[in-house]
Structures are given as structure tokens and as C-alpha cells.
Amino acid sequence: MSIAIITGASSGIGAAFAKEYASKVDELWLVARRVDRMIQLGDSLGVKYKVISADLTTNEGIETIREALESEKPQVKYLVNAAGFGDFGAFDEIEERKVEMMIDLNVKALVLITHMTIPYMERGGRIIQLGSGSCFTPLPYFNVYSSGKVFVLHYTKSLNFEIKKYGLRATCFCP
Asked: What is the pLDDT of residues 61-91, one digit of tens each?
């Protein structure tokens, strides 16, 4: 049974990817904090789905994904890392905790979830990492977010090279 794992699935681009991949897999794993929105999305798609409630800015949230993978040992066809957020403001105006959360979600969670999922991916599998148009130029007052997205772009390009031997591909989607 092939699955698609989609982080940030409760709204926006994550929900759009869930709609796109619903007909391409046997089951969707929807990952986000807002359970009610994921249930509403899953019910609207009319496909088998699993809701995984996880705050990916925390180690506990990331471990929730690892536990689900280890428990179910799925065949992953698609991994979409769409969870993320940015906060506008000068470096000295944004709370340090928000800076840490942006890095934890936009960079750390993306890398760790990718790393833990690859062993469960089938040949021909795809990894989609959500980048941003902001990764192509420095953006004052959005510097942590855009810098994190530069990391995502470079990480994904390098990863794509490394995982070819497994018959997998990685793409950074930069809206």
C-alpha cells in the first residue's frame, strides 16, 4: 500500500498537495497541529487517510512521525514537507523564541522528517520540499525565513543527487 506523507496539511499549499496526491496513493498521512481541519480535508477527499497531530517545532512532534513510520513501516511514494511559517520584522524586533521556531520548523523538522522517511520510500518516490521565491534574494525584515529557505533549496538540490541511487527524486518547490 503506497502512501503520501504531507506536513502542513491542515491548510494552504499542504492541503493543495493532499488534494493533488489523493488519487495517486492508497492512503494519505496528513500531518499538522489542527486536527479538525485535517479531518475535514480527509473527509472531503473521499480517500483513506491518517491524521497525525504534531507540532513540528518540537522534538516530540518530530518523534511522532518517526514512531508512526517505525510502527507501520509504510511504502512511501510521496513526501511533501509543506509545514512552515515566517515572521516579518527587524532582527531586533522578533522574539528570540519565534526565530528559534522558524528554524526548527522550516529547517530542522524538514531535514529530520526527510531523513527518517527515505528508508521507507519506494523506487520512483518523490520528495517535495517547500521552498520560497524569497530564497533567491536577501530579504531585510524577513531574513530568518528567507535564509532558511535558501538552506532548503541547497539541501534539496544536494539531496536529489545523493538519493538517485535509490531511484528517488527530490524537488524544491519555490512559489
From this structure: 999 999 999 999 999 999 999 999 999 999 9
- Euclidean distance between CA atoms 37 and 52, whole angstroms: 12
- Between CA 19 and CA 14 the distance in angstroms is 9
- Angle (CA) 88 134 156, round 5°: 120
Q: What cell does 134 get?
A: 524569497
Sheet holding 49-53, edge to edge: 49-53, 27-32, 2-7, 75-81, 121-130, 169-173
Q: Which residue has the cell 530568518?
A: 144
Residue pair 17/7 in contact by the 8 Å Cβ criterion: no
**pTM of this prediction?**
0.96
Burial of residue 83, with CB atoms counted within 10 A of its CB: 0-12 exposed, 13-18 middle, 19 or more buried: buried
How far apart CA 57 and CA 12 sit, in angstroms, is 18
